[in-house]
Fold:
Amino acid sequence: MSDLYIALDYTPGISQRSEVGRYARHLVAALAALQTSHHYTLFTSARHTGDQLLPNGDAFRLRPVPLGGQMLSTLWQRARLPLPADLFTGRADLWHGLDFTLPPLLRGRTIVTIPDLAFLTQPDSIEPSQVSLHRRVVPQAARRADAIITLSAQVRKELIERLNIPEGHIHQAPPGVSGAFRPIIDTMLLTATRHKFELQTPLILGVGTLESRKNLVRLVQAFDKIRREHGGPRTLALAGPNGWRYEEVYEIVNRLGLKNEVRFLGHVSDLELVFLYSIADIVAIPSLSEGIGLAVLEAMACGAPVVCSNTGALPEVAGDAALLVNPSDTDALATMLLRLLRNPKLRALLSKKGQAQAAKYTWEACAQTHLTLYEEIARKEPDQ
Structure:
């Protein structure tokens, strides 16, 4: 078909370290690799610092808003300012909001990605102001958009059941795993990683923002229950920046006297994450709610045995290559972690199956699904 002008709200790709931010960055890179003749405008209300890699070539251009930080998003979503985004992007046949919402527009077709519905399914685990905002703007965006993209079948199901969105309106585009995530076997690099972060084995690694939804308090409690058992873990490492109610995780560590056993690594680079996955005896992701599950896939791609929740999108991405547990049952989580640590054959089996499972997910396929939908939606006559 003829060339399209596609505008993407790339704000999460610039400003977020979460899975939504990773989705935005990997999607754009994969779209660039497809080498179509379409034109992309990456619109952002976050300040680009130059650290974030952007696609090369004339097909992509970055259009920052001449307002500081998240000001325009705040004006759009909270103050409901009817300032059309077209004024900043220029011509666009199609607008894609990558993170729950759509801005005001004069014309053009629209697609919105809804990563999860945790604000409905697990509202107590999310900052109240975000719950209030999302409950207002997400249903509006879902009904206004010409199409909705989810990254998991679970979120698609929740949209149908909770917001009464027609099935044909929702399109699933599973995420991918970057080729950078692979097992590292270089003993010098692995030893250097252990020394850098002061990690002892057996090692349990938790990955994700330190926030209530990640259920890390229960992970710390489960670790404490088994650390003195025969074959139990010596270190629990938590890799991720501080988020909402992060203080609770530090408090439980202090209360249980685990300052020397629990390591807070903060935000780590993708390269460091690959090394951490490669030295971990277990990667534990007991989240209360996840709509994407990238951490599970990336851990498995590196050969790490995974224990994760049996809720949200995690069972979907894990398949039969991880051990699933009720995230609300601390005793069950502790029992499963200890069982896996004591069983090297099971860890080796999960490592092998996990790599095969992760290989099914590629950013190329994710981008191709997006591109097909872009072209399908753009064939419709634009709104006047």
